[in-house]
Amino acid sequence: MAGRDIDLRAAINAVSDVVQNRPRPLREFDQIYMKTGDMVLQSEIVASWADGKRLAFIGDGDAISICVAYLKGRGIIDYGPSKIAVFDFDERICNAIRRFADRGTRTRNLR
After folding, report:
1. Which of the 8 DSSP states describes residue 23?
2. How crowded is residue 100: how many other Cβ atoms within 10 Å of its Cβ?
3. pLDDT digits over 27-71, tens only?
4. Of 15, 109, 94, nearest to 58 (Cα)?
5. What CA–CA distance (Å, rounded) separates 80 from 83?
6. Residues with Cβ < 8 Å from 29, sequence gap 6 or more?
7. What would you report as the CA-atom Rg of the chain, rounded to the nearest whole angstrom?
8. Which pLDDT does position 93 carry in this prediction?
9. CATH superfamily of 8-102
10. Annotated domain spans of the chain
11. Where are the alpha helices (DSSP H) in the chain?
12. 3-state class of 54 per DSSP?
């Protein structure tokens, strides 16, 4: 993973929390979600690439934005964007992000 060591079990368990929160994919929107292991890898790459930056997601059915914020918030990774904004036409995605953040998951940099 991009040259940084992380606790893989903790990362997979955290991303599994996110997967359980996201809405079911809709074929009418051509939503096909990533598998949990791929999401862990992608989240680590995004967190490393965007370390200290402000990051915007235009569409985020896979919920990588939440994964990045959650992994950082739980201390599984100590790097990542300073702020994350998500824009999606699927209100279910936006509502899922709000629900996840409202549960007290320490995703303070997610709005």
Report:
1. P
2. 21
3. 777 677 788 889 999 999 999 999 999 999 998 888 899 999 999
4. 94
5. 9
6. 61, 90
7. 13
8. 86
9. Vaccinia Virus protein VP39 (3.40.50.150)
10. 8-102
11. 8-21, 36-49, 64-73, 91-102
12. strand
Residue at token pair 């997967």: 19
Tokens 């929390």 — which residue? 17
Contact 98, 21 (CB under 8 A): no
Tokens of 43: 């989240």
Distance, in Å, from the CA atom of 86 to the CA atom of 66, rounded to the nearest integer, reads 9
Instruction: Identify how many contiguous H helices and E strands the chain contains and give both numbers.
Output: 4, 2
Q: Pull the structure tokens for residue 79.
A: 């790097």
In sequence order, what are the residues at sequence separation of 6 or more whose Cβ sits closer than 8 angstroms to the Cβ of residue 62?
Answer: 22, 33, 34, 39, 42
